[in-house]
Queue: 4 jobs
Job 1
Amino acid sequence: MQKIIKQTIVRDISWLAFNARVLQEANDPTNHLYDRLRFLGIFSNNLDEFFRVRVAALSKMVLLGKSAKMHLEANPDKILRKIQQIVITQQQEFDGAYSDIISKLGEEQIFIKNEKQLSAKQKEFVAKYFEEKVRTQIIPLMIESIPQMPLLRDKSIYLACVLGKTKESMSQRYALIEIPTKVLPRFVIMPSIKGGTDIILLEDIIRHNLPMLFAPFGFDRFLGYIIKVTRDAELETDNDVNTNLIEELEKGLKNRKRGRATRFVYDRQIEPVLLNYLVKRLGLSKKDNLIPGGRIHNFKDFIDFPATIFKNKRLRPDKPFVHPLLQQPCRIMEIIEKRDVMLHLPYHSFDSVIDLLREAAIDPFVQSVRIALYRVAKNSKIINALINAVRNGKDVTVVLELRARFDEEANMRWKAQLEEEGVKVVLGIPNMKVHAKICVIKKREFNRTKQYGFVSTGNLNENTATYYGDHTLLTTDRAIIADLNRVFDYIEQPLKKAAALKACRTLPISPVNMRRVMMANIVKQIRLASKKKPSSIIIKLNSLVDQVLIDKIYLAAKAGVNVQLIIRGICCAYTEQRAFKGSLRALSIIDDYLEHARVFLFGTGNSRQVYISSADWMVRNLDHRVEVACPIKDKEIQEELADILNIQLAENVKGRILDNEQSNNYVQRAGSEPKVRSQEAIYKYLHKKSYK
């Protein structure tokens, strides 16, 4: 009998395979050039965060020696070496994709010019732009004259300059200039010939004007190379319940700015003497991630490449539309008293969630609102609705997770604003992030209490809701609402209400029983398969990492269960094993929208169990966070979710098979099989759907 391979793929290598799928989209000639540039930006932004978090963590584990190897089941030093090999290879693919895009842009008379390619008129424009907009925003640092190397900011790019004098060939100085992209646009449209568009990057405007900066000091030779440093972004805070979390976060944020460098990226044309000097002054070594690249870094800015210059830009499938049952004017609370409603974002409009909270703020019978927020929009309509609820005399409690990575400062500002307006703000739990996206609205009308709530797989953020694929259940189900209240009770008073989570009967909750409930559902399907009865598992996640649940999935496939996985990002499971009697197929979809939902479907027909959740199958989500999974009881909504999952499983345009080698091969269409681009197909499916 064949044995199951119990090992799993190293999560960091699997993550790099995910980012390779994003790079594939940048390389795909069938995508619009604007989208290809956007995917280059997404790839770059993803990689920056990977080095800030995962590479930083691995670097720390190297110092732990054997204990880290036991924890990772692999040598962290070996993983880091593999990461560097993969990243350098991907950088070469990235450069090739960018070169091809530049060529195709030229065919459309769109040119990204550097400082050496300017016409006389453009040189005049660039000099004037520099003098009026740029010069006062930059202060060159003569780094050889500074005893201690200035701290290079994470997320910033720098022009490393070599300054020379023709008459003194041995006289050479170095300078650093931070490119002011926080206050000025990275892309500047220049005057160009009729019918064409010429763009110059901000750093090339500065390069062109280096003589204006340094010639007064006797220099007449100027070279500039872009460099960037990525730093450890982990916040180390004291999780003791008596610690002032705000003070700890403020301290951690200051330390983050000084975090250890985890990557140094440089223009591969940089003068070797300057490169060696910078590496030495920054305290780096050959063991660190020194990544050679092209002239341009911080490609994340290409996510915001000017769209207006394209005459035929491909739009996303279609604009979000309001759920047919929630068309305004209507009373949303009255509608969900009669039936559950599921919003499928970004196909359905997120406005319905805002409308519900606005309605709660206005309704004279609403007494209280409790809501958990993780990441909200910069100008949040959610926050605005909650503040107006307080102004209208409602009791509003907001669970605000201050430790949402990279949103810590924004959430601290929201805390101050909410408290100033009279909102009760709860800051979460020591040692545990609150990642659940939940809400309960309490109403007292004619001596009768009514409660309304929602559970979402994604952030309550109207900006990301336009391109994140998520599900939000609006419900008045008493069992679900009762458990949501227990979750809020626990979060608000974790010491006094420690038993509240364990009292939940309907909602699987992390860290209490979600893992156990999911395992029980898998075991049930294994038993059905052993009895030759229909069995099926469909799991949709961002990341599948947890070893215990992966082992259970292996057992299900070995028993003959048909297991299908839709995993956007990390997939640590070996999907191809001879021991499997059933199928174990893993699919990843990378397209216009970010597939963000977590959905679990066990079984078939009337015995089917369906859940949505905020939790990925990772140790941190299942054991170290407050997360919620919600059973879908309404048969019509169950069918709706099943249909959406099946459309995604039929994806054969933007789908990749996740095999043991993480080779990212596209799903191949068989013969005359029609094309299925699932995001477009789901939009059409939902747009046509009618409700009784």
Job 2
Amino acid sequence: MRIQDAAPRARGEMLVQLKPGVALEEMPFEVLDRLEVAGKQVLHVKTLQDEVALSQDPRVARAAPNHLYERASLRPDDLDERLWGLSNSGNPGADISAPEAWRITTGKRENGPIVAVLDTGIDFAHNDLQANLWTNTGEIPGNGIDDDGNGVIDDVHGFDATQNRGGGEAGGAHGTHCAGTIAAVGNNSLGVTGVNWEGRLMAVKIFPDDGDTCSAATILRAIDYADKNGARVTSNSWTGGGYNPFIKEAFENASALHVFAAGNDRSNNDQVPSYPSNLDIPNSVVVAASDRNDQIAFFSNYGPKTVDLAAPGHEILSTVPDQGYATFSGTSMACPHVAGVAALVASAYPEATNQQIKNRLLFGVDPVPAFAHNTASGGRLNAANAVKNDALPPAPPTDFLVRPRPAEVLVAWTPTGDDGWCGQPAAYELRVSPRPLGEEGALDEANLVEAGRSAEAGKQQRSLAHLMPSSQPRQVHVGLQLIDKVGNRSRLAESSVTLPACRMFFENDGWEATGSWTTQDLPGRPGVQSATGEATLTSRPIDLAASGDTTLYFETRHQLEPHYEGVTVEIALAGTDRWREVGRLEGDSHGWQIHRFPVHDFDGQTVQLRFRSSGAFELAGAAVTGLDPGSQLP
């Protein structure tokens, strides 16, 4: 028997040749087209049967899959073998799959997306960059007049924010090197190619010629210029300084997608912030560096919460001033790979929003073990996935089962593929809400209790979601969506279950507030208490005399500046001032989160809870639950 091949094929479609005299009406398929092959009729059909089943049908002469074919990958004549980040001949696959992406787009020079390179400037005379420089067509070069009225004189190819004037010519090699990775001219028989063969590079110089530091005021001028002059993407291969609220506000309110280097301190950005990458704004992507072996580069910062993905950043060949080429290493080199792919996406899909481009970058990564616990996406940049023309979302998960327990639900499902029922494993998001998820705004207000990558299609997957306990049985709504490489989402799988009552010792009652607390009712969450600055919320005394295995639960939503603002959660014996820290909340929760902490050290005693906030913080509820002493956990 011939073994079925594993080549790509159109799902649910076959090519079939019937035996003479067989009537179409009796066949178990729908005819999509009638083709002629060597004088014989071949049917293009839609069917649930596979090649083996149809071939064994006595009415069928021959059957074959409707295979899918692709154009050959494009390789420009200047794809130097040292450009391993684009195409890694030494370790195939440990690259961004640029030749495969170039089948879809090689970038766009005419009215294409502008990439602003906030750096040391760009060598405007470099032969491998000149054709891809952004040109301000409203400005007449060298006449000393602000021809286009944008407030800057002679800003033909960019802006020198260090001098607050037109220009942006290279004062060092760093910016030119980054620009070459983004958009060195491709297929011109010269030097190297960038991620974009064609592009529009805007020079925005933030570092002076005689130094390696710049001021926050300079950066604010740079962001403002890039935004007002149409930058679609900004590339930011710089770090240092601390948190600056004005820089955060400027980046967040600019219309571009901002790509940030994670830093080169070999440290965890979740624990020790690096700016601007730790600004935690929705229109940004933070990049760690990978090496040619698909490992995290030895110098690279990382962070499973604060660093989004990895990209090639070790021993990267690119352009430098005076018609030169050189190899540099750093997250500075990883950042322009991602900025370049973001520009490819914007070229192929001009109407894509920042979030849609970001989704394509993050959901389209190649999952790599080295980045599974070092980045939020768990993978390395894949340009081909990011630009893929894919309008087919995953099919909704099947066998969606939810089993309630006190203060938690066990969820099980069988994943489909990332293209309908077939393809690679998709990502998923599991959410829980006090109201039906189909109601307006409910999905956005739901708790995101887990996100990750599905198991292989057809293999059952399980998850345990912790929920807020209650003294009364209550209904919750659990939803699951699968997400493919370009951010297409499956239909929502949803189930409603009733949670059994828990033994409660405290249930969001009896608070004493000081500072900036207010109370409001939100859909599905009555009595939410909000703080906007310095504030303290202290509970009434809670008697745990009859409790064992006591657990504290609380539900929050917060947007706090890491290491500058936070919420400290504490517990103490009632009537004392010896508070013990249970946990500390920082950063942006990106929606509602449920927290669960064991406090069984206080079983049998009377305690109080305290929340001390120094920023934007909302508390939807807090609860203390436990078991009868001596009983067993269910």
Job 3
Amino acid sequence: MMDHIDLPALTQASGTIRLPGSKSISNRMLLLAALAAGETEIRDLLDSDDTRVMLAALQKVGVGVTALGNNAYRVVGCAGVFPGKDADLFMGNAGTAIRPLTATLALSGGHYRISGVPRMHERPIGDLVDGLRQIGCDVRYTGNDGYPPLEIFPADVKLDAPIRVRGDVSSQFLTALLMALPLTGETAMIEMTTPLISKPYIEITLNLMARFGVTVERVDWQRFTIAGGQSYRSPGIVHVEGDASGASYFLAAGVIGGGPVRVEGVGRQSIQGDVRFADALETMGAQITWGDNFIEARAPATGKLKAFDLDLNHIPDAAMTLAVAALFADGPCRLRNIASWRVKETDRITAMATELRKLGATVEEGADFIAVSPVSTIKPGVAIDTYDDHRVAMCFALVALGGVPVRINDPGCVAKTFPHYFDAFGEITAPVIAIDGPSASGKGTVAQRVAAALGFHFLDSGALYRLTALAALRAGVALDDEVAVAGVAAQLAAEFSGEQVLLAGADVTAAIRAEDIGVGASKVAAMPAVRAALFSRQRAYRRFPGLVADGRDMGSVIFPEAQAKVFLTASAAARAERRYKQLIDKGMPANMHALLQDLQERDARDAARSVAPLRQCDDAVLVDTTPLGIEEAVAAVLEIAQRKLPRK
């Protein structure tokens, strides 16, 4: 694991992100499926540290879990009775796992020992334990009272009075009781002794319980009644929504970095309260578009982001992102009613205040609020400490969009909920230099050298089309069969290792440069279905610290938001002469007249195709390499990049 990641100075954010599954929904679904009668197939489950902890714990108590691939799992429910009656369970720092599992195990008639990482042993669980003890459960502290680790023993449970529990520390205590009490088979009532925080998370719990066959009567968020005789039943196949909390970072990036940024996996039909983060961005002036399964964000139509004073009790996790967005507002911002931050993975109020001050912001903090006054210029090169807290790491990545480099320490902590977060963030923010031009204009050689000079990644899009043509011919697919060739492109087993190009593990660097493959590549590149099949693959090359991409439509179609666009060209005669010399140097036969005719035909075909025709974008800088050598062409492109990209 890296001890830090350095994000370059960024100025733009745009693109589309497919969200990983929601942690809150994933762990609730896993436990409900384990408690239900029948088999449940859970699709789009989040793959993260927290869900792995829950999966391991369920298997230790005898629940049958089978990985089906593509983040899908089959869970064989135990109909409310865990087969394993004695187990040591390590729960990491997963609050969404340890709290509901503790309540369930307390009603399971077994002997269990539950522990976690040191920070978990500092996170309160006393209100949940008090609630369980009110009905006779035998849950004991083996460390400090009120905190894990815990030891659970079999006990006789009596539900002859309402369970009274506080609601102002964590909504997970109520979630735990609600999910566990149907196991008794008796009518159970829970009464809140203090106002309930994070109500949207309870709505998730109630929604999922109903999906598994158990309904709860709620009265004004004060009293919850579970009628006796209900039991969990498998609904068959269930899907996990995208993570609405995780969406907040990308939506905020779209607002700070111009946008549009679209997140897919949540939308107006989401059951997660954190989608209301988009409303908070609208309060700041952001342009928000909703779909059934997406949300899209852009910067305000005019001016800076507006300052805000908001009660954020309903979206405590996503609210952290607003604390960083406040750096870009037109005045002081106040985040209120966020006392639960104090008992999360770290004391988030103190952590956020400490790191924001490093950046030059004036910050006031209280027991349940934080106030942030923005600065005219964010301090560059600051190293952000993350306190082993995934959300601290993710939200502070947004600082780089202020046009300053920033270091994020311990970036691996994002594995708790979003293991590939920085790759995804790079896909919408990493600087891109798009170099387009006709065949044999030298763009591949120039792009590769520019990438090496800048330390950027390199995408030779032409190689992907050449690989598609080669793979199709080797598979016996006719190059005029668009559907079949697109199928080959979608499954292309391509790898790039330095200057080597591999197809299904075999070195095809020389093979894809053959003239017949070049002609085939030009043909298949004109097919809309083939271009669509390779679109996302090419977009995925965009990552930190940046990308140099060359091809025919890098600036017009694949990366229209590229900070620097270059159209590299040369006369047809000059390009034919270069190609002739390349072939002769390789000991291959060549005919100047034939090469010139072939290039002219390719130019005409590339310019006339219906999808992504070869053209110079309006915002691309023309570089005619006819009179230039390679080093001069590279220097010209580097000079353009220096002007267009944000300075470090």
Job 4
Amino acid sequence: MREAAKIEEIVSEHVALRAAGVGSMKGLCPFHDERTPSFHVRPHLGMWHCFGCGDGGDVISFVQKIDHLSFAEAVEFLAQRTGVTLHYEEGGRHLRTEEPGKRQRLLDAHRVAEEYYASCLNSSEAHAGRVFLANRGFDQGMCAHFGVGYSPNSWDALLRHLRSKGFTDQEIEIAGLATRGNRGLYDRFRGRLMWPIRDITGATVGFGARRLDDTDQESPKYLNTPETPIYKKSQLLYGLDLAKKTISQQRRIVIVEGYTDVMAAHVAGEACAVATCGTAFGSEHVKVVRRLLGDNADPAAGVLLANGRSRGPEVIFTFDGDEAGQNAALRAFHEDQNFAAQTFVAVDPEGMDPCEVRMARGNQAVLDLIASRIPLFTFVIRSVLRHFDLNTAEGRVRALAASAPIVASIKDRALRMEYTRVLAGWVGMDMAAVFDSVRRSRGISFDTRYGENNNMAGAGIPAPAYTPSPNEDPMDPIVKLERQVLEAVLQHPLYLIGSGFDDFDGSSFSVPKYRAVHDAIRAIGGLDTFTALLRHAEHSLGQGERAQELATRRFAERVREEAGQIVGATVAELAVAPLPQDRADEMRAYCRGVVAALMRMDLMRKVGEARSRLQRLEETDPDYAEAFRALMLLEQRKQSFTERD
């Protein structure tokens, strides 16, 4: 058995493994919480060991530990997986000797129940269920793929079926498939559509059920299996058995809110979609996701994209646009602190969930929705700011008071400083005031350049003023060029695809209001978002100028909405400003020319700063090698850009 079962395949269903030298693989240990991978597998030896918790063994012991099985159950599981026939010492047919409630008996009961519910979906009684599914665009093949079924509207239909298969009442009750009342045992699920909930190995451990009679207000709309020895809702994600391979390969996971949303996403082509099972996304789910993503702080572990960039692991939440969705985002915000992965939110502008998006606009619209993701931090902060009138001084002060604690709770210092600066632009307030509000919300000072903790404050000497930019004279060449670049990207984003615009960072813009506009463009996903909008427009209108215009308009609207009321006015101004070039056949060259000019200037500045830093260091300084390497990379990038230009 140990030879027949490939340990790397079994382990990879639970842990994202990466090469770690000759003949070795590693990942995050599934048996204890860790950030740095210490769990190692050697396939040619068939062994695993965690240098963090000290546990280890072979493939059988791994299955025993991960699935809480006895030795015999683990061997039987692996035999079934590998097609090995087991021979028992007593000879003849193997008789089960497990006591009622043992794991395998509970799994068998759920397998039989799933098959029974699936067969009932074709009955005349289930007509309303089939209509429900058809109205949402799911055909028979799709339903079979996800194992969707129907529970007859009877008190004991499943109970009688399970009894006929040899299951005892005690087993059926422990499995959560029946409930005991004053008159005895009766079916838990009656007259509902049924979705089997499977663990990561693909074994059915519970069900999610939706009522079909929406006039029945006495029973819950959704009903799930209760907690059982095999069903732990805080550790389960619906659809994970189907999505785990793609999640591990692409190092991203899309978390939706319902069973039909998972189906819609998968049918549309997003195979990384999963959902929680009647509970909020919590810390136990975080551990499951991190293991699958191979989440760690090593940027080299990212996926290499077609453009040569490395993308780290991504967790993408899709929430409804209503208040409940925003509350879900706030809960996820706190869980995000446990992720080293980047976490994003995708919300449809009309507040539709992925299933509704697919019904209304088709499969591509679901993919476009997910592609339009924005950082979770951005979503949460902006959700709070929407409750205030930022056109008034009082509204801005209250908005700052409400949002500063959120920014202050970001544990990553560099990211916290970045969002402090961005928040200043969103609320239209002085950076020093925003910085001080964030600092006071943390109860500590993480930088003493501003505010009352500065050793000059309160001594009659003003604290150093914040001076974020050079002269903002519109005729200044730098100011003018930054403005022209933003005008070009807002008015003609199509011409700037592949121009390098998305390579700019916040420091590339010296004027605060232009930096804030650039931040808004970056927050919505940059030109990748425009590309997604263009695909959607072409799907509806066909290729041509109408589709390009529609996509450009929606892109500018997204940027303006993201920028907020204060900076949004600058976005509107840039979007309608006349350009120096008025010839259509020269417009593309103009737009790419101003981006190239700013890129050239930005690279020259960064090279100069890198040289200056290197000159201040001695060759024996521990930072010298890093500074030299950074300078060489900038020089290479500058040379490459010059040659391309």
